[in-house]
Amino acid sequence: MKGAIFVDGDNIFMHLKNLGKRVYLDKDIEWEDLFLALETRGIDLIIKKFYIVSHLIHPVAVNNIMHIGFSVTPTETYGDKALTDDYILIDAMETILTKSIEVLVIVSGDKDYLPLARKARERGINVIFVSFSENTAEVLKREFDFIDLMPFVKLEELLDSTGYVIATQAVDAGGDIL
């Protein structure tokens, strides 16, 4: 099945930041393992898009994210509101209306994506949300397939300077929740 993935980098950034660590969006998540997990479900990601407010990410990280196959769209803020969700909603809607995809993967737990997901489902497109379980709107987990992002977080990125896990859930090297 052909699929498209849209990553709300702001959403991931805020969750990881709340864990108390410096955030490296290109290194904190095992993106290629996530791609493999989707591939084992029969999904061929033909579109990979990553969105983030430009001041939240270093240019080297942008280059690294592009190196693993994402196109990166820098977004902006208007007042105190980041427009990342808006950029994703417009691009994802255009994709479901004009591209031949069978699966839409949204990497965010934000319920702002609910109307988009419902519209995709109406058009016969399977929808999968990928996010941190505790930060994902229950309605998204109830209505759509859901993959917890925590098993794809690099364990060493969740350790403080003394080696203690600072995450809400610990994962082992195989990506299983402990």
TrEMBL record:
Coiled-coil features, chain-numbered ranges: none
Q: Which domain of life is it from?
A: Archaea
GO MF term (any one): RNA nuclease activity
- By its UniProt entry, which Pfam families does this protein fall under? NYN
InterPro entries, per the entry: NYN
Domain NYN intervals: 4-148
In the record, which residues are listed under signal peptide? none
Under the heading PANTHER family, the entry gives:
HTH OST-TYPE DOMAIN-CONTAINING PROTEIN, SLR1870 PROTEIN
Q: What is this protein called?
A: NYN domain-containing protein
